[in-house]
Design brief:
Layout lengths: L3 H14 L5 E5 L13 H6 L6 E5 L2 E5 L7 E4 L5 E5 L5 E3 L16 E7 L4 E5 L6 E4 L15 H7 L7 H6 L9 H11 L12 H21 L24 E6 L2 E6 L7
Antiparallel strand pairs: 1-7, 2-3, 3-4, 4-9, 5-6, 5-8, 7-8, 10-11
Helix pairs in contact: 5-6
Length: about 270
């Protein structure tokens, strides 16, 4: 499930292998992934342009096409990935989850593609069809990025309201980039129950939460994604906390399945 680290990996793929290449064809025929645009609308906007820069804020990814040109927004959904291929279909880059050396690859789940003048392609491959391609995305609505959020921004994000702390971490308008698995890791590191109301957090607990956020995001970026984080493999029935061996607890918080240590993350 792409979260901030996986989206950063996709951004790096575009930066390494797709910038500065002339776009001569666009496959935007998947009207669900490319909604609300009509088939051909994205194609018409991008033909003859080049991707000039790739940006990320939280889980949102977008590319500039030059001064006055459209902005191309790419959302990976839950299963999407960006893959760069040669003209014969041989994959040359795909980020942390890409299986290097597998030749032409399996492109049955191709949802969107740019074809470059040299025959190469940028593809959104998405088995669950939950990704989105959109022109000029509304990135101004996003909160500060979880990888670079300042202490003042972080404290402001959790300073008001009575929402459970996990729900606040998942709110992309408050802090951008944190998904379900990353939130469980952050709260486990901070020893805070996910259902704890944000207005009950003490100043030291907020500081602990910020440090846990920074450490979790840094670890996931360094090691290849949220699946590499410590507590992820213990989010299952019968598992015990890797820190103190207490049983892992499970419940719904903010509508999302959550796991926490029954001893060190007590219920509010």
């Amino acid at each position: 499930m792409p979260e901030l680290p996986e989206v950063e990996s996709a951004r790096s793929v575009i930066e390494r292998a797709a910038l500065g290449r002339l776009i001569v064809e666009v496959d935007d025929t998947d009207s669900y992934v490319c909604r609300p645009h009509r088939p051909g609308e994205i194609r018409g906007a991008l033909l003859g342009t080049k991707l000039r820069a790739a940006h990320r804020q939280g889980k949102s990814l977008w590319c500039d096409t030059g001064e006055g040109g459209p902005v191309l927004g790419l959302h990976l959904g839950m299963s999407g990935k960006i893959v760069i291929a040669e003209g014969d279909g041989t994959e040359v880059d795909g980020g942390d989850y890409w299986k290097r050396g597998r030749g032409a690859g399996d492109h049955r789940w191709l949802r969107f593609a740019l074809t470059f003048e040299d025959g190469g392609r940028l593809m959104l491959v998405d088995p669950r069809r939950l990704g989105r391609i959109v022109l000029d995305p509304a990135i101004e609505q996003l909160g500060p990025d979880a990888a670079t959020v300042t202490p003042a921004e972080f404290r402001a994000a959790v300073a008001t309201g009575t929402a459970p702390v996990k729900a606040r971490l998942l709110d992309q308008h408050a802090i951008a980039g944190i998904g379900n698995l990353l939130a469980d890791e952050i709260l486990w590191r901070a020893r805070l129950n996910p259902a704890r109301p944000v207005d009950e957090l003490t100043a030291p607990e907020v500081t602990r939460l910020l440090r846990a956020t920074r450490a979790s995001v840094t670890a996931a970026l360094k090691n290849g994604g949220v699946h590499t984080l410590t507590v992820v493999e213990f989010r299952r029935p019968g598992a015990r906390c890797p820190r103190d061996q207490a049983p892992m607890a499970r419940g719904k918080v903010g509508g999302r399945t959550s796991w926490w240590c029954s001893a060190e993350q007590p219920a509010p």
